[in-house]
Amino acid sequence: MCVAEKRALDMQRKLLTNGNIFKRTDGRWNGVVWYSDEQGAKKRKSFCGTTKQEVKDKITAYLADLDRQLTASDESKANLEESMGRWLRVFKFPSVDRGTYDRLECTAKHQIYPILGNKVIGDITSADIKALLNHWMNEGYAYTTVKKVYNILTDYFRYLTQQEYIPKNPMAAAPMIKKSNFMASQGKEDLPTSETVTIFTPEEIAKFKAEALQTWGNGTRIYQQAAAYTLMLNTGLRTGEALGLLNSDIDLENRVLHLQRGVKEISRREGSKSTSGREVKVGKLKTASSKRDVPLNQTAVDAILDLRAERYFGEDSPLISDEHGGYTRPVKFRKRYYRILEAAGLEQRGLHTLRHTFATNLVNGVKQPDGTIRSLSPRQVADLLGHSTSEITELYYVKKDTSRLAGITAGFDL
Prior knowledge:
The structure is a single chain. The protein is an alpha+beta fold. It contains 16 helices and ten strands. The chain folds into three domains: 3-76, Double Stranded RNA Binding Domain, CATH 3.30.160; 96-185, DNA polymerase, domain 1, CATH 1.10.150.130; 202-396, hpI Integrase, Chain A, CATH 1.10.443. The strands form four sheets. A three-stranded antiparallel sheet has the order 1-2-3. The protein has a three-stranded antiparallel sheet with strand order 4-5-8, with no helix packed on it. A two-stranded antiparallel sheet has the order 6-7. Strand 4 and strand 5 (256-258) form a beta hairpin. Helix 4 packs across helix 6, helix 5 (126-138) runs antiparallel to helix 6 (143-162) and helix 14 (352-364) packs antiparallel against helix 15 (378-385).
């Protein structure tokens, strides 16, 4: 029996009638609603008015309020895992994309339920929330991970308070730990975001490419679709954008890619309930600004030709396809990338590092054969990356290069 059905039965046991209305001898109207209290004692609520409709309206309002109170009473006595699971399914699943919902559910299952899942929501205090956040901080989890836990709890308890399921929001006295204090407690320095961006150096890029193009004795490539990583390094494409490219999206004559769709891997579900396994979903791009045209340099063109020489199933098939001409699973694509890094003796870094490296080199500049430095403005790079603002590009994607400041104050003696 589902929770909603159980709740309905509970309501029927408490509410004995939906109201009876009758006319008194003096011409006025009376109404009565019978219900049983928590101890099972039979109770009644009476109403009166000058018209039948007036009494009917009073009974309707009373029943609605009683329904809200009984529902709130039931909800406040539920444990957090049951209640939050219901909230996620009813309110979050219809309003966010599948990938986002997977992440919300994963955070709840792995970081919230193990500690607070069995607690009755009406009994959860601010101290419980702080203890949960401190636990994951002390376990060495990243600040961003713990912040996600905090954000879910904030949304959830706001909902409970707005619906009057609980009288007081425990999050009000449990603010998120300041990032500087969080990092200090883990013995880490709270560096500016631009200084934590990871990129590949030119030497590392050379090592990566050399390993990626390794072949077996018979001449076949050790790593399938290895040229795809070079393509991403020279276009700044997100993983989902690269895997969503069809051959028909590529205009080699004019050296441009037309980004139309993205690929992501999500949990298989029957309705909102997850089942075993994962599946590839092809859909819209991350944001409206993500739908864009990306120019191709010669290295990117060569990478596309390399990919087509290795595997080509027609113009309507993915450029980076699987063995059957379908879309490549992101998890396989990532694992192959990590294998190349390991074999090349390079530090493990996410696929997004390719995008960061592209952005950093374009903003900071690349030395040309004649010795000059060629660079693009942050706004130009933001457009290439599909960012709505250049601030996002500068803050999260470009690694600060202070070496160019050497000697820059010469002649400014005060």
